[in-house]
Every structure is written in structure tokens, then in C-alpha cells.
Amino acid sequence: MLRSVILVLLVIAVYGEEQNALRQLISKRGPVALSRAISSCKQGRRQDCEDCSTVKICSYDQTALTSYRCQDVDPAKPYCTGEGICSETQEDGVVCNEANELCPMNSPGFYPDPSNCTRYLYCDSEMLGYEQNCLAVNNVYNQTTAACFLKRRSSDCFQVDCKNSRNINKWFVYTPFPQLYFLCSSNGAIMFKCPRETDVFDLDLKRCEFECREAGRFAHPNVRMYYECAFVSISKLQKFEQTCPPLLEFNAKDQKCLEKKNDLMS
Prior knowledge:
By secondary structure, the protein is mainly β. Helix content is 14%, strand content 36%. It contains three helices and 20 strands. The chain has a three-stranded antiparallel β-sheet. A three-stranded antiparallel β-sheet has the order 6-7-8, with no helix packed on it. Strands 11-12-13 form a three-stranded antiparallel β-sheet, with no helix packed on it. Residues 4-38 and 262-266 have low confidence and may be disordered.
């Protein structure tokens, strides 16, 4: 009997040490993803948390009827806690920050929410997203400046309703900043970013392609080739792909094809 008691105590001690080590690891890494149950509403609740930021309204048979984001109702209280109550702080014991589908992979920085032109987020190196809102009335987010500005035209507000069934599984270019593009999935928008600043996403080819923004010659992924941008009318630029003569490579600095040894010496 005594041996059994001692064995139980040892197991409890080891489990406690493992849990403490896990807590220390989490505290060193910072915020990590922790999923909350998103099944039907808990029995006896007419209001509940769908996730860390979303309140869902429930019927008596525990069916979720509709939902809303706390941040959309009150930006100062973005977290859903307890029985569907929006709060300024996260619920104790629940870490809500998680990898956000609006964060392009390995590209920390500020990004738009393509479903709401008044909302944006900061993505860190682990693709954790920290959402923010344009607080001033009639302001929308500008990706170029990573700040909000006064909307003067309807075109200043670019947004796509990914909940619309017609948009599910369709690709879109984020028009104000076409280096960004996204897929409307059943879980919302998934954001991507072209690896080169000179590239934009081609909806037909489903890949990033060089875009002419000014006249001149520009580097091509193939060093023996280059892009030539030329005006074919007063306002229209057209892209041409050119190949260097044999034994020559394109030199972006000089904007022409040179012998490889000259390129190394420059």
C-alpha cells in the first residue's frame, strides 16, 4: 500500500515538473496558438464565445445562430471571455494570439484586412497577427503608408466579401497594392505576397509576374534575360522579354547585357 502511494506521488511530481517546464517554454516563446472549442453552444447559454474574439448567439437547442466580432463592436474590448462577454483583456489561462491567415509567410510588417478596409494588422516573424482599426470616422487603411487616411472616393475602400458563396475558392489581387493577393476560403481570406517588389499577381497564370511601372530595362529571374518596358502609346507601358546574346548576362546596374567577367569586376 505504501509503495502504491509513493508511486502515485512520484507520478504527480513528474507531471507537475513537466507542466512547469511547458509554462516556462511558453513564457519564453511569447504568444502561441491555443485553440478554443468552436462546437455548439454550451447548454443553458444563449450567448457564448466562438473563439477568442468572436461572440456567438445561440438558440435553446444549443445551435449557433449568428456571431459578431468584439472588435467590430468596441475596438477597446477585442476579446471574448466567459459567457460571450467582450473584454479589454484576454481570459485567464487562454492565449489568444495565433498565426493569422492574413499574415504572408516570413514577411513581418503591417498588412490590410481585405474584407474590411478600416481594419489592418501587424504580423510578426512567427505570423502572429495583432489586429488594429482605423479609429477616425471615414478613415481607411493605406498599405503604402501603413496608416489610415481620409476616404475621399469609394475606390479608396477596397474590400471583398469572402463570406459570399460566389467568392469562395476564388483568387483576388489586393488592387491598392498588387504585390499582395489572397484566396477567399471557407474560413476567410488567406493572404500571400509576391517575393519581389517589382512583381504583381497574375490572376490568369496564378503566379507572380513582373509589372512595368516605368520605361527601361529590368532584371529577369533568368540572368541571361531581361524585361524591357516601353511605351506603346502616350500612357500605356508594355512588357517585353529579351534574351542576351550568347555568353552575355544582363547587368541591372548598367541596364544592358555584358560579359560575365565584366559583371564580376564592376
